[in-house]
Amino acid sequence: MRRDRGRIAAHGDDVVVTVPLTLKRRGGRKDVDSASNPRVAVSTGAQLPLALTLARAHRWRALLESGRYGTIRGLSGALRMDNSYVARLLRLTLLAPDITEAILEGTEPSGLSLEKLYQMPLDWGRQRDALGMHQPE
């Protein structure tokens, strides 16, 4: 049996890359089954909404720290978003680095949601305890 190895083809001004993949459901998520094509590198199994929200929060924090916006109110006005929503998302930048890393790598505890993250204590040790995560060495 010959495996489809994928192909690259020109389509007008675009280049179309076709890669054979197998998607499998795991815990409600669709993940790429890298066993079906060992040449395909799967970067992460991150929950996209959590990862994007963390990225957005860190970008907003960078805008505040750079001085582009002097206050959360100024930032939320420029974003045309509710002040309390922006403030709530900015709290996500206070998560322990290993928790943030776990979310981005898709190794976060099962059932983790934005709602749970919004309620995290500020202390990193207590955050890990709340999520049942071990202290990094």
Structure report:
- With 137 residues, the protein is α+β, with helices and mostly antiparallel strands.
- The protein has a domain at 48-131.
- The chain has six helices and four strands; from the N terminus they run E-E-E-E-H-H-H-H-H-H.
- It has helices at residues 48-65, 72-79, 83-90, 97-105, 114-118, 124-131; strands spanning 7-11, 14-18, 23-26, 29-32.
- Strands 1-2 form a two-stranded antiparallel ribbon. The protein has a two-stranded antiparallel sheet with strand order 3-4.
Q: How much of the polypeptide forms β-strand, as a percent range?
A: 5-15%
Number of strands: 4
For the residues shown, what is the average pLDDT?
Answer: 81
Would you tell me the structural class of the helices and strands?
Answer: alpha+beta
Strand order of the largest sheet: 1-2
How far is the first residue's CA from the last residue's CA? Answer: 47 Å
Low-pLDDT runs of 5+ residues are 40-44
Radius of gyration: 20 Å
Q: What sequence of helices (H) and strands (E) makes up the elements?
A: EEEEHHHHHH
Helix content: 40-55%
Largest sheet: 2 strands, antiparallel
Give the overall shape, derived from the CA principal axes: flat
